[in-house]
């Protein structure tokens, strides 16, 4: 039995590490991919997790498989492609630590996940199923994702979704919107950025935008606002919590760590329990996740920067809130 199974991209993040003697940027190899980052955050807290995806038959793929195993993430559903290389992403950081990406994925091994690669027993033996939109960009991974989602729905799992919009990975923004909406049809829990919310709903108002998604049947919505904290909607209830004041180095993986914190708090609940969550329960959940996300920005890289439980407790006790 797994607390959370996630499906999606597992790739290499090449993260800036400084400059060489000649003034050129030095990049450090780090494991990445949003669904894998979410699992790493959960495993760091003691949850039982499993990953479904595909890497290349190359040194990067071997490195990623070994890294998941070392971090106690089950790799039953991690397949290897011998015709397409592991996907690569180069992370670019601005002066405030915010990042942008350049992808080498034309195609990448994560896109090659096939319906036959989906381990139905792993999904059926889980409490929560998590996915993002990157696996919906192309076939065959789109069909594989939909098959996995239908298995999760048939077994009444909580389904968690992070649209994680990356425009360069889609043929067009119209194609991105259509693909992302496929995922919205399945989601019980949604983690979304302010920019993604406006992209999908055409609303700049957090209240109005999340109301549109609520009307689609998504009962628990978290809008991450970076240093401004988190806005949430649970049916008719909405609220906003400030995050923690930390010295940001790299925001890579902060949203994934936040979502890992949310799913950790939900892992012992059933899908029907989501409707009966009380306001204070949701706010405690968001506060915990805010701390986890904030702490992840203190180091470079995504998975290597994820804090443990004691770090989060200390942050919540001793670190002031950031008020903007």
Task: Describe it.
The chain has one domain (2-318): 3-Layer(aba) Sandwich (UDP-N-acetylmuramoyl-L-alanine:D-glutamate ligase), CATH 3.40.1190. The protein is 35% helix and 26% strand. The protein is built from ten helices and 13 strands. The strands form two sheets. The protein has a nine-stranded mixed β-sheet, with helices on both faces. It has a four-stranded mixed β-sheet with strand order 3-2-6-7. Strand 2 and strand 3 (25-32) form a beta hairpin. The relative contact order is 0.14. The model has no long low-confidence stretch (mean pLDDT 94).
Separate helix tally: 10
CATH superfamily: Ribokinase
Q: Which fold name is given in CATH as the topology? A: UDP-N-acetylmuramoyl-L-alanine:D-glutamate ligase
Overall CATH architecture: 3-Layer(aba) Sandwich
> How would you sum up the global shape?
globular
Distance between the termini: 42 Å
- Largest sheet properties: 9 strands, mixed
Question: Over the alpha carbons, how many angstroms does the gyration radius reach?
Answer: 18 Å
Nearest-integer average pLDDT:
94
Q: What structural category do the secondary elements indicate? A: alpha/beta
* Number of separate domains: 1
Q: How would you spell out the order of helices and strands?
A: EEEHEHEEEHEHEHEHHEEEHHH
The CATH class name reads Alpha Beta
**Fraction of residues in H or I helices:** 25-40%
């Amino acid at each position: 039995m797994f607390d959370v199974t996630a499906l999606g991209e597992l790739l290499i993040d090449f993260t800036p590490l400084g400059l060489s003697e000649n003034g050129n940027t030095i990049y450090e190899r780090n494991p990445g991919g949003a669904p894998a980052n979410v699992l790493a955050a959960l495993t760091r807290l003691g949850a039982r997790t499993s990953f479904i995806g595909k890497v290349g038959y190359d040194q990067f793929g071997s490195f990623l498989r070994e890294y998941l195993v070392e971090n106690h993430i089950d790799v039953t559903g991690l397949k290897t492609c011998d015709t397409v290389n592991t996907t690569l992403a180069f992370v670019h950081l601005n002066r405030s630590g915010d990042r942008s990406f350049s992808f080498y994925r034309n195609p990448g091994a994560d896109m090659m996940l096939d319906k036959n690669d989906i381990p139905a027993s792993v999904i059926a033996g889980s409490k929560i199923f998590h996915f993002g939109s990157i696996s919906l960009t192309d076939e065959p991974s789109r069909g594989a994702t939909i098959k996995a989602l239908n298995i999760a729905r048939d077994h009444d799992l909580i389904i968690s979704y992070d649209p994680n919009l990356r425009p360069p990975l889609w043929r067009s923004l119209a194609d991105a919107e259509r693909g992302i909406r496929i995922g919205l049809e399945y989601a019980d829990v949604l983690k979304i950025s302010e920019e993604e919310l406006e992209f999908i709903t055409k609303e700049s108002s957090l209240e109005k935008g999340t109301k549109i998604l609520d009307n689609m049947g998504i009962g628990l919505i978290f809008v991450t606002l970076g240093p401004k904290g988190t806005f949430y909607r649970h049916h008719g209830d909405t609220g906003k919590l400030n995050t923690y004041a930390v010295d940001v180095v790299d925001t890579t993986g902060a949203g994934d760590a936040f979502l890992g914190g949310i799913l950790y708090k939900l892992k012992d609940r059933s899908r029907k329990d989501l409707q009966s969550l009380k306001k204070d329960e949701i706010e405690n959940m968001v506060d915990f996740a805010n701390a986890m996300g904030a702490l992840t920005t203190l180091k470079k890289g995504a998975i290597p920067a994820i804090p443990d439980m004691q770090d989060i407790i200390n942050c919540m006790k001793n670190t002031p809130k950031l008020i903007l």
